[in-house]
Amino acid sequence: MKRLVEKHPLAIRWFHWLNFPILALMIWSGMLIYWANDVYRIGWGRTTLFKFFPESFYKAFNISQRLAQGMNWHFTLMWLFIINGVLYVGYTLVSGEWRHLLPDRNSLREAIQVTLHDLGLRKGEPPVVKYNGAQKIAYTAVVLMGAGSLLTGLAIYKPTQLAWLTGLLGGYEWARAEHFILTMGYVGFFLVHVAQVVRAGWNNFRSMVAGFEIVNAPGPAADGPAPGPAAPTLPA
Amino acid sequence: MENNPDYSAPPLPASPAGEPAAAVAQRAASRSRRAFIVGGLAALAGVGGWRWLLTRPDADGTPWPFRRVLDANGRLSQAYFRETRLAPTFPKSKATTRQNGNVGLGSFDPAAWRLQVQGYAPPGAPARTQEFTLADIQALPRVDMTTELKCIEGWSIVVNWVGARFSDFLAKYPLATANGHSARYVSLVTPDEEYYVGLDLSNAIHPQTLLCYEMNGRPLDGPHGAPLRLVTPLKYGIKHLKRIGTIAFVDERPADYWAELGYDWDSGH
Hints:
The complex is a heterodimer. Chain A is mostly helical. Chain A has one domain (about 1-215): Transmembrane di-heme cytochromes, Chain C (Fumarate Reductase Cytochrome B subunit), CATH 1.20.950. In chain A, about 60% of the residues lie in helices and about 10% in strands. Chain A has 9 helices and 4 strands. Chain A has helices at about 10-35, 55-60, 65-95, 100, 105-120, 135-155, 165-170, 170-200, 200-210; strands at about 1-5, 40-45, 45-50, 210-215. In chain A, the strands form 2 sheets. A two-stranded antiparallel ribbon of chain A has the order 1-4. Chain A has a two-stranded antiparallel ribbon with strand order 2-3. In chain A, strand 2 and strand 3 (about 45-50) form a beta hairpin. In chain A, helix 1 runs antiparallel to helix 3. Chain A starts with a strand and ends in a 20-residue tail after the last strand. The model of chain A is unreliable at about 220-235 (pLDDT under 50). Helices cover about 25% and strands about 20% of the residues of chain B. Chain B has helices spanning about 20-55, 65-80, 135-140, 165-170, 200-205, and strands spanning about 115-120, 130, 140-150, 155-165, 175-180, 180, 185-190, 195-200, 210-215, 220, 230, 245-250. The model of chain B has no long low-confidence stretch (mean pLDDT about 95). Chain B is elongated. In chain B, a hairpin with a 2-residue loop joins strand 9 and strand 10. Chain B has a domain at about 85-260: Oxidoreductase, molybdopterin-binding domain (Sulfite Oxidase, Chain A, domain 2). Chain B starts with 20 loop residues before the first helix and ends in a 19-residue tail after the last strand. In chain B, the strands form 3 sheets. A 5-stranded mixed beta sheet of chain B has the order 2-1-12-7-8. The chains are: A mainly alpha, B alpha+beta.
């Protein structure tokens, strides 16, 4: 028997989809800024495994010589990024949605199971809930990363007026590096997130647009003695 | 069925059990259609907004909506600004150097150099101009300060600066006030008038804003702005005008070299 389950509230869907282009443009304009002093690399001593970023990358995305433009986008869209993020966090707190999102004592174990399962190293389905442990940890972490981007960003934006903050983050150079690392974190999050959404399929993707998911629920008799409305099983 | 293991969250609301499959499918289809249409329109509006932004006429090298936001950001940070907040200082041993930027450093006769200062002259007050030698500036209290210079390109270096506080200069020569009023802005221009910056007077009189004549233990050399330059850890390096020719105290926001090329006028820290 098929039933419609209300998965994502309208507000969450708007916050999610507004954040996507805003964060994408923040990363893009951040690249335009970073280009003017592109000193980060992965390596040691004179050995460089990877330079952020190769010339071909700059060429492909037309990043060179656009510092002023990058700063102007960055310091305009930062307001939308902050407002959208604050409203999102406020909404999850007021609506109780945070209960689905905040990791609890079982989340780490569950996240390991989910990861092993997704890598094909473990048989058996992980527990089926709105967000499994891996999702709870990832979605909470990405919100904390957003707060981190705001703080490290402020620290390099106003390093004299907010000298206490810049100092707390290890100084101007460190704050800039932290801001960059967090950005790379979003890129990593994005890649895994998109891969997982593709894996999870249309029903799951549609729920972030239309709000509902179609689930196969057993008939009323099978619901057992559980009081209140039945909790149908969600796929993925 | 296993209990919902979403430990603290209430179960998600669901449509009533026993609803015919056809009715569920129909409702799903119509809700999906509506949601995707709204989403598509929102995406189109976003693309439209992007194109609108990029086709606005330029205000000093950037589409005017950006200029408006930059100026609003600047007003906000000036409102938050307190001259009691100081940039961190560093041990002198950390000081290094990195030369960047030559605009305004064209042919120049050091012997003939004088600092020209145009005093604040609001409507009704007489225009005044006063000239200073380097010795006049060096006669003011000597301040030795090691701070971090941040280039707008994103790099930073620690530099040791020696000079006179801008505020000490104004205390001795009250050229920024007239008829009991203070100018709002300071304009600084190189002798060849090729490079020019503006800053709020409140930033100029911050205790770490210097009329600087020594760097890392030596008199300023040519590429670093000899004989006298501005240093202020309240601003990116672009505002640290080298080789000051003229200083003027005004009420109109002064022209600024990089702000005319699309950068933030305030560029403040």
